[in-house]
Design brief:
The protein has four helices and four strands. The chain has about 110 residues and is of the alpha/beta class. A four-stranded mixed β-sheet has the order 2-1-3-4.
Length: about 110
């Protein structure tokens, strides 16, 4: 499994597009996104998602760890994606940089 923090629907589609264009890779079958897993987009007005660190921690420490313990998942590339929000940068019209810490989890 490749597990991202909170790319949401838009970010996940962009990830798929970039990987296909630049590397001819299709990860749709092995990719899951914590933001898409924790929210019900039809029932909740979450727009693009929630907090990357909040979604990552919640999903990894509950749902994913249980699946690892049960032996359902043996190897997970976990990328806790997020944005480095800075009121100063935003007010100055600067872009919001993204960050991702990659952690390989194995059973």
């Amino acid at each position: 499994m490749i597990l991202t923090g909170d790319l949401g629907a838009t970010g996940s589609e962009l990830l798929y597009e970039l990987l296909e264009i630049e590397h001819r890779l299709d990860i749709r079958k092995v990719h899951s996104d914590c933001g898409l897993m924790i929210f019900d987009r039809k029932a909740q007005d979450v727009n693009s998602g929630g907090s990357g660190c909040g979604c990552s921690a919640s999903v990894l420490c509950s749902h994913i760890m249980k699946r690892i313990k049960r032996g359902e998942l043996g190897r997970i590339l976990f990328l806790a994606t997020g944005a480095l929000m800075s009121p100063t940068s935003t007010k100055q019209g600067q872009p919001i940089p993204g960050i991702a810490h990659a952690v390989l989890l194995e059973r």
